[in-house]
Every structure is written in C-alpha cells, then in structure tokens.
Design a protein that fits this description.
With 374 residues, the chain is an alpha+beta fold. The protein has helices spanning 22-33, 155-167, 195-203, 208-211, 213-218, 309-313, 319-339, 361-373, and strands spanning 11-12, 38-42, 51-57, 60-66, 72-76, 91-93, 97-99, 106-108, 113-115, 136-140, 143-147, 182-191, 237-238, 267-273, 277-282, 285-295, 298-307, 353-354. A hairpin with a 5-residue loop joins β4 (60-66) and β5 (72-76).
Length: 374
C-alpha cells in the first residue's frame, strides 16, 4: 500500500529498514547524536573532583568529570598518544589525574597532559595541545548535556525550548526545581529495540488503555488515547478524583515540591527533548529518562526518579511512587521489543500506519528523514 492509497484517517510511518539497517543507524549516530545536545549524566553523580562517568554518545565514548575548580568537564575518552580508551569503567574516582593504562600518559582533571614516560626529553611537546579533546557541555535540570559538534546548535533553542513549548510558560519548568532534587531511585533498562520505537511509544497513548492499567487508574484521561505529546501548551493530565498521588495504587505520595503553582498540582506533564531524553513531572517527583542508542536494535535507557532532598535523606518509602512508572517502563519496553523483529518482515517493508491520535508522530518521522537526507 502506498501513501496515496491510504484513507485520510491514516498516514504512513517510516519504512521498516529505518529500524534495522546498520547503515541508517550509522547516519543517525553521525548526524543526530554527534551533532545535537545529548543528556549525558546527572551532575550530582559527580559529587567531588575526580569523580567521573563515561557514556556512549554516537560512536564516541565521552568522559564526564568534576575538575578541581568544581566545574563539570567533558572530554573524548581517548588517549592522545595511541588512541587507547582512557577510562574503561563506566564510573569511578581518580585522585588527581587520569592515567592511560597502555603507556601511562597522564592527564589532569582539566584535560591537560601532565606526565608521560620520557616526556622531559621531548620539550617540543606542548602539554595543552596534546591534552584530552574537550567536548561542549552545558548544565540544565541538574544534568550535564554534551555536544560533539564543532559548533553546537543553540542550547536554549534546541533543548530548553522543549519545556516552554510543552507548558506554554517559560517559568513552569523552573518551579519543579529539578536541578535541586535528589535521585531517589535509578533503574537501567537494556531494551532490545531501536531508539525510535521507544520515542514513538512515548509520544502516543493509543496503547495506554491496552497495556498500562495502573497508569490509567491514576490518569483516566489517557484511556482515551491522547497523551501529553499530542499537545503544545498542554494543560496536563489531571489525576483521578480518587487518586491521592502518582503511585502504583493511587495512595498518597511524599512531600510535594513547594514551589509549584496551583495549576501544576494533581497533574502529570511530560515532554521529549530530542534526540534522547524524556522528562515527566508530577507534584512530588520528576522522572527523567536518558536513552543511549548502542545499535540499530539495542538501546540502554537510564531512568532517574527525583524527589526533594529532604525526602530522600530521611529515607521515606519511595517504592509506590517508583513502582508506577517502573511498570510503565517495563510495559512500554516489552511492546517495543515485540515490534523490533517485525521491522524486518516483508509485511512491514513499506512501514505501517498512524491513526489520528498518533498523527503527530509523523512530524518526528519528518524530522529524522530531514536530518538524514537533507
């Protein structure tokens, strides 16, 4: 079936090869993940100088650390000598410097080359020139966002604008004080599916009544098939009358974020920051997903549940709050994994279709196609 044969209620999706072809995934790595701002790590994870995390951004391993002046820095995780990976662990601590395990070239937390075997016999080697390759970094919502492009796109327009577009109010996201919240729980998911299937799933709620019974008990509006991603300046999904909080059983949650406006109470808001972050906001916590696409059919998703620091430090029971969206995640990722094998089927070679409540996903498909093919 071609696009011109579709009835007005249906519009086409991307072809199946967009979810399986390694060549297309390589283009996405180069043109999307290595050119856009990428939500990398929670800066609170880098609580002291020398603490680091490594993350995969496109085809590059990126090292994010806190320097001695307490600023957060990012570098390509590659020794300038012979190209060995500098830090092989996903996270850890160093005292003063990063030391390559191959030939012991050593770099300060500011990225400068500070030592190497026989370096004093090579006085013509400039230590700054042969330091680690820096990566652009900005901080927002308590996360370090990195960009590998030589000239990054405007951060305000490409990242921060996503929140303004969702709320229609430039001050709304600030009232959640996301940068001041603490991680109450973090869960890492290994999803055997293409990153675009995960985004598409998040962008629609046509599936909510089918696979998210716990969610629609708390947010009955989602049962109709329309979700947060369908609207600009969206009013938010109101909690069910009988729901006391955003928990798996509708019971009361924990202390509410005190700076929220009245219209933000008892409502759920969600938005996507392309290409790989989701932000979900409720009155007493915030849930942030970061995707790390590793292959055409493999994506790691790291999900943080953020609460008031006092709540986390006091050891309040967060299990009912975490369990609701953990179930949603497991249900969504299972659905994506159910779709992934079919992307190679001859039945899906030309793609599928989007119903009216999913039509806005077509704009995401157009965005992907435009970036890959110009």
């Amino acid at each position: 079936m071609t696009e011109t044969e579709l009835p007005p209620s249906l519009i086409p999706t991307l072809p199946g090869s967009f979810y399986t072809d390694p060549r297309i995934f390589a283009l996405e790595q180069e043109n999307i993940f290595e050119n856009m701002w990428f939500c990398a790590v929670r800066t609170a994870d880098l609580e002291k100088p020398g603490r680091f995390r490594t993350v995969q951004v496109g085809r590059e391993s990126v090292l994010v650390t806190r320097a001695r002046d307490n600023t957060v820095k990012a570098y390509l995780n590659i020794c300038r000598h012979r190209g060995a990976k500098l830090c092989t662990d996903e996270n850890g601590d160093v005292k003063r410097a990063f030391r390559c395990p191959y030939h012991a070239w050593t770099y300060g937390l500011d990225g400068k080359l500070i030592a190497a075997p026989n370096l004093t016999s090579m006085p013509d080697v400039d230590r700054a020139t042969f330091g680690l390759v820096p990566v652009h970094l900005r901080e927002w919502l308590g996360y370090a966002w990195v960009c590998l492009a030589d000239e990054p796109p405007p951060f305000e327009g490409d990242v921060m604008a996503a929140a303004t577009e969702r709320f229609g109010d430039p001050d709304a996201i600030g009232r959640y004080q996301v940068d001041e919240l603490a991680v109450g729980r973090r869960i890492r998911y290994e999803v055997r599916a293409n990153w675009k299937l995960i985004i598409e799933n998040y962008m629609e709620c046509y599936h909510c009544a089918t696979i998210h019974p716990e969610l629609i008990e708390v947010l009955p509006e989602f049962a109709a098939g329309y979700a947060a991603q369908s609207y600009v300046g969206w009013h938010g999904a109101e909690f069910a009358d009988e729901a006391e909080g955003f928990t798996v059983d509708g019971s009361a949650g924990v202390d509410r974020i005190p700076t929220l406006a009245a219209e933000q109470d008892r409502r759920f808001y969600g938005f996507t920051v392309k290409p790989q972050a989701f932000v979900n906001l409720v009155p007493d916590h915030v849930i942030v997903h970061r995707m790390y696409p590793l292959a055409a059919d493999r994506t790691v998703v790291e999900c943080d549940w953020l609460f008031l620091k006092d709540v986390v430090e006091a050891g309040h029971d967060l299990s009912r709050s975490v369990e609701l969206f953990h179930r949603v995640n497991e249900q969504d990722f299972a659905a994506c994994e159910r779709c992934q094998p079919a992307m190679d089927s001859r039945a899906y070679r030309a793609g599928g279709v989007l119903v009216p409540s999913e039509h806005h996903i077509g704009a995401f498909h157009e965005w992907v196609t435009r970036i890959l093919h110009g």
